[in-house]
Structure formats: C-alpha cells, structure tokens
DNA sequence: TAGGCCATCTGGTCCT
DNA sequence: AGGACCAGATGGCCTA
C-alpha cells in the first residue's frame, strides 16, 4: 500500500464511518437501489462501439447482444481520433499488423472492455449498499474510496455485531429465559446494527462537518457549508 | 493549469 | 489455444 492509499485509509477511519452510519441510518442502505433496470447506460459508446453502431446499421444486424465478434469490425482511425490512441506512442499499432492479428487484438480489447465494465458494475453495486449520501449533489465515490469505505463498513458491522452479542449476553445474565429478547437487540439483522430510521439524507456538507475530519474522501462534496 | 479520476489499449502471464 | 487477469501507458474530462 502506498502513501496515498494509507492517507485515504486514514481518511475513512472507523470512527468516521460510525458517524456516517449513525447519521444516515438505514436510509443510506438502499440495497440494490439505483442499480436495477432502467438506469441509464453508464458507459458511453467507445469509438469502437460507436463505429459498430454505424456498422450494424449498415449491415442490417439489428440490436442484438454485443459480442466480441461485433467489435472485430471497428474502425481504427475513429478510435485514434477520439480515444487517445496514438500510433506514434504505440509503435506496434494495430494498423501495421496483419488482418488476423488485428482481428484477434480487437476481440481481446472488447473482452477487456467488458471485463472492466463488469468490474465497474460490481463497484456500483458496492456503492449502493455502503452508507454514504446518495444524492445528486454528491459525486459518486471514487473506486478507491468505495473499496476503502466498504472495508471499514465491514469492520464496523463486525464490531457492532460483537457488541450486540455482548449486550445480549449481559442482559440475559440473571434474567429468566422466559423474557424474550427485544427484536431491536436481535444479534442478527440490520435492525440491531441500525436502530436509526433516518428518512432524509443529510447534505454532504453536513456529513463532512459531522465527521469532523475533512479528508480527500469527501472531495466529492459539492455542497456549500 | 496541475492534479485526480477514469476509460481504453496493450502486452505479458497464468489458468483451463 | 483461448480466456481471465494484471499493470503500464496514454489521453480526456473535471475541479480547485
């Protein structure tokens, strides 16, 4: 782990996460929210895909699933124009390769693109279940911030569970078995960990102020204090 | 304008 | 052999 990551890790300390969690309660834990059907495509067409959409139009292939084979026909020049591709910096560039290698390379590129998109989808899923302010005024968590926040969230959940177990054990001491354990103290489930039923999300600025530790994690905050 | 974040391409390595 | 995974390089976009 490099120094930058360590700083980020400190920035997303357990205390900070506890604060966030207690502040936002369960409302921030919209499991699956915003990650289902109907959400706009997050990946604008790459030059390759852009080209393909034109190609498929020309070639009478209507709206089928995007496969790696589809990408085999994409136009190198269009990619070079708008995707930062530069033959000068890539001496072994695609255009100079035989058609067979070129087609193989394109298929590999398409697979890699899909793989990264899957990875990003998974990160979006993670963002959806960790407590931070999901609002239009708050920029999406960066990848590294998502991972670090998720890690601390897991640690916090484990800690909360352990404390809850201790509490239940303590309450059961000297009490008759007949008295039922309140559901709010159930050792499992969100109710035990999130007794707060927060409804409205606080602004990012409030969140940042509450956390007390302005950090690089909250650079996404666009709210004015 | 510098720095952060990101998408993409690419070649290498490992696995099935 | 083909696919998955990875890390480096590069350029675009956005923000302070």
Written description of the protein model:
By secondary structure, the protein is mostly helical. It has a domain of 75 residues: Irregular (MYOD Basic-Helix-Loop-Helix Domain, subunit B), CATH 4.10.280. It is 52% helix and 0% strand. The relative contact order is 0.18. The protein binds a DNA duplex (16 and 16 nucleotides) through helix 6.
Beta content comes to under 5%
What would you call the shape?
Answer: elongated
What is the percent of helical residues?
40-55%
Output the structural class.
mainly alpha
Give the low-confidence spans: 1-93, 183-225
Query: Can you name the CATH architecture of the domain at 98-172?
Result: Irregular
Q: What would CATH call the class of the domain at 98-172?
A: Few Secondary Structures
**N-to-C span:** 33 Å
Rg is 24 Å
Tell me about the biggest sheet? none
- N to C succession of SSEs: HHHHHHHHH
Helical element count? 9
Mean pLDDT value: 54
| Topology-level CATH name of the domain at 98-172 | MYOD Basic-Helix-Loop-Helix Domain, subunit B
Total strand segments: 0
GO molecular function: DNA-binding transcription factor activity, RNA polymerase II-specific; E-box binding; protein dimerization activity
Biased composition (Basic and acidic residues): 76-103
Region (Disordered): 33-109
Biased composition (Polar residues): 52-62
């Amino acid at each position: 782990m490099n120094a930058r990551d360590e700083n980020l890790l400190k920035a997303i300390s357990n205390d900070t996460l506890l604060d966030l969690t207690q502040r936002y309660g369960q409302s921030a834990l919209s499991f699956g929210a915003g990650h289902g059907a109907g959400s706009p495509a997050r990946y604008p067409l790459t030059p390759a895909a852009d080209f393909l959409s034109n190609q498929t139009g020309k070639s009478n292939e209507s709206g089928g699933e995007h496969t790696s084979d589809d990408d085999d026909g994409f136009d190198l020049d269009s990619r070079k124009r708008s995707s930062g591709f530069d033959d000068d910096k890539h001496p072994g560039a695609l255009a100079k390769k035989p058609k067979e290698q070129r087609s193989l390379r394109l298929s590999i590129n398409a697979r890699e693109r899909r793989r990264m998109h899957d990875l990003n989808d998974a990160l979006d899923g993670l963002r959806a279940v960790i407590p931070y302010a999901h609002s239009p005024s708050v920029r999406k968590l960066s990848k590294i911030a998502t991972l670090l926040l998720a890690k601390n969230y897991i640690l916090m959940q484990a800690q909360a569970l352990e404390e809850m177990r201790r509490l239940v054990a303590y309450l059961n001491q000297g009490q008759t078995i007949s008295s039922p354990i309140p559901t709010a103290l159930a050792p499992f489930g969100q109710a035990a960990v999130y007794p707060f039923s927060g409804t409205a999300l606080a602004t990012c600025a409030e969140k940042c102020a509450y956390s007390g530790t302005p950090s690089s994690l909250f650079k996404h905050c666009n709210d004015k204090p």
